[in-house]
């Protein structure tokens, strides 16, 4: 089941603002954060020029936000070296998307931003 439209639009607006602050327009030719909403999740990607062909781009997933309609809760996931997604530990869920953006920004375990 997909994210309810109002919840999705609110989350996308907050995420857009977050991404623009994290990677300001002045550096978009080097790195940019983009995102995609699909089904019950929103995935954030780091977009960079491909070193062999600077007019092409690579996109690497940074994190995924998942929404559970039944519980009305957001959760945050990380991707391992085998491209498998895992719930962030300690398990953090929230009705407020902002709280998960704070977890992503702080990145106390260095799992998202390295």
The share of residues in helices is 10-25%
Structural class: alpha+beta
Percent of sequence in beta strands: 35-45%
- Report the total helices: 2
Label the overall shape: globular
Question: What is the N-to-C succession of helices and strands?
Answer: HEEEEEEH
Count of distinct strands:
6
Mean pLDDT: 94
Count of individual domains: 1
State Rg: 14 Å
Termini, distance in Å? Answer: 32 Å
Quick one: biggest sheet? 6 strands, antiparallel
Flag low-confidence runs: none
Describe this structure in words.
It is a single chain. This protein has 114 residues and is of the alpha+beta class. It is globular and about 45 Å long. The protein is 25% helix and 39% strand. The protein has one domain (5-106).
Which features characterize this protein?
114 residues, alpha+beta, 6-stranded antiparallel beta sheet, 2 helices, 6 strands, globular
Helices, strands, pairings?
Layout: H1 5-22, E1 32-38, E2 41-50, E3 53-68, E4 73-79, E5 85-87, E6 93-94, H2 97-106
Antiparallel strand pairs: 1-2, 2-3, 3-4, 4-5, 4-6
Question: Quick summary of this structure?
Answer:
The protein has about 110 residues and is of the alpha+beta class. The chain has 2 helices and 6 strands.
